[in-house]
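Q: For a teaching session next week I want to show students how multiple molecules come together into a single three-dimensional assembly. I've collected the sequence lines for a complex. Could you give me the predicted structure tokens for the whole thing so I can convert them for display?
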Amino acid sequence: MKSSRLEAFSDGVLAIIITIMVLELHGPEGPHLQNLWDKAGLSLFTYLLSFVYVGIYWSNHHHLFQVVPHVDGLVLWANLHLLFWLSLYPFTTSWMDEERLARTPTIIFGVNLIGAAIAYWLLVGTIRRLPTSGHFDEVFGADWKGRLSIVFYAVGIGLCFIKPWLGVLPYVAVALMWLIPDRRVERWLQQRDEMPVV
Amino acid sequence: MKSSRLEAFSDGVLAIIITIMVLELHGPEGPHLQNLWDKAGLSLFTYLLSFVYVGIYWSNHHHLFQVVPHVDGLVLWANLHLLFWLSLYPFTTSWMDEERLARTPTIIFGVNLIGAAIAYWLLVGTIRRLPTSGHFDEVFGADWKGRLSIVFYAVGIGLCFIKPWLGVLPYVAVALMWLIPDRRVERWLQQRDEMPVV
Amino acid sequence: MKSSRLEAFSDGVLAIIITIMVLELHGPEGPHLQNLWDKAGLSLFTYLLSFVYVGIYWSNHHHLFQVVPHVDGLVLWANLHLLFWLSLYPFTTSWMDEERLARTPTIIFGVNLIGAAIAYWLLVGTIRRLPTSGHFDEVFGADWKGRLSIVFYAVGIGLCFIKPWLGVLPYVAVALMWLIPDRRVERWLQQRDEMPVV
Amino acid sequence: MKSSRLEAFSDGVLAIIITIMVLELHGPEGPHLQNLWDKAGLSLFTYLLSFVYVGIYWSNHHHLFQVVPHVDGLVLWANLHLLFWLSLYPFTTSWMDEERLARTPTIIFGVNLIGAAIAYWLLVGTIRRLPTSGHFDEVFGADWKGRLSIVFYAVGIGLCFIKPWLGVLPYVAVALMWLIPDRRVERWLQQRDEMPVV
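A: Of course. Below is the structure for the complete assembly, covering every listed component.
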């Protein structure tokens, strides 16, 4: 099976996930700025956060499949497994938002984030074992960012038991880690181990 | 008409079906884990089940059209007929879930599953009669899995009359049949009759 | 601008329109077959009807752009104009369905159908004037079906003033006209004036 | 990274944004034309307006990426930034509509419009700095329309403080500016500075 079809289908699913989250943003109940802030202030923040996560996965996902031209059935299902976890983002984001960062929903959101991160790690594993993935290791290196993300998510879940909003900080840190630093160390990383820039 | 366009459109519809089902997952009504379990425990299970079904159809659908480069009007409508049955999955899944596996909704879900399976079988028939489907029979063989699925769905519907949750077992069995065994007998099947792996 | 991109975008929009209509199908309020029939019987019929319409437009739309390799800005906006009318189908279908085929909603549904038919006719006009549309006339001929559809929709709207369900008959007739006869006269039409089969 | 993939993903997101807005159009509460007018008259107008905006962005976005064959990580994120602002259109459109053009929602809608316009302007900037964007300046010229749009949006927001419906006029003017004049001056502009026609 050509990886291009798998990419096209995944792109479709990711485009829908990233967009339908806005359907969970219910309009403010009143014509005043205060209504927007009360109802949608937190919603907009969590929407932005999940939007960035899905954007990161889309970007990484695309880099992943540029190295391998063909995939087998196991990669296909590992990919659907990842899409399943990502498809739950609108659901867990919405719960965390409606309960205004209460403890359990914020933990469950972290579990969803970890689930997707592990699914991604499994997907990388299934690709690595393909005979056609020759340049894979040298291109992607040790993927320390992927592993560090899982650690950060776990720390976030732990901090939720103290104060839920404390747990959100590591979640945000992961998003920033994928977004910002790659920007700065772009050239350096590309020269060192040819890791593709997110 | 090139089959690639039909595939692209079908991919779009399947990507949307697989994703909008998450919109039917209403957030729990409260900040506790118990609320999640009460409200969304069953939802998550039925969502996962339907997600796997659509994933299986996407995978099979793709294999189907790799053999034939061109299609005619009859194939096009047989394909839309299949998409129609699949597009009802969110609707029947949601009803079965909201009535917590009551008898009638669980039967209707099974009817939807059978409808899609028959529509798929008809689609295969319309492709088989195309002049360009030369290698079709040798590639797909007797499609015993497709026929067995219809039997399992029918058994599931029958068992619903005893206990609805009993009927769900064969439904799950079909999903597992397409998911797991192909994993193990992959090499054997490919050598024997070159059946593409799901 | 290459017509292939316009097709891809239109395919995306049509795939979404055809699928989100199922979100308007609210689950029955109760676990009995009667609940399904009361609540969703009519919904399923109107959903099927609109599903077929969008399927027809997708099929025709695709044939249309196979003849012309490039399009200009006017074609692009004529195409968006058509997509706008089609995107209202879920809205007007839902109203007609919720008011159980009351007079005004059924008329408005017919107006929507006519609006899309006229938008399609305008789109054909903008394509016809392109310098690259050399074979257009001989391929599509006089498009009597497109014009007949508008007449049927108008008759349907007229009949709604007597009995709304009477008006639905011509609406259904148009769907059947595009679906069934082409099946039968496929070979004859192709030989006579090379009109592509829906 | 090939720009064609970025285009395909953006097309998917834009197709979804343009279509899900119709889900915010709740059906009228009653079977009479008056119900449609009361409930959906304004909705249909704001839906049409946002539909045109997204259509304009899709058209411009496509022209933008025809000039550059490859993009880097910064362009990718500038593009996601634009998609984020556009994905809020259904949300702000719906609020403005439900509060029937009250002052604050209409201003917030304008802020959303300006946000998207600035995001587009930033995206153009990130493309302009690419080494592969050789013909960019001569193709797109000074982009006076992009800058004029931002001014019009700002004027609209200002007029909202007097009367909200006054503010809507410049919003509509921007849509018309992109839609109509290019139609008329098409040939003249193409000869002068080869600016692609919207």
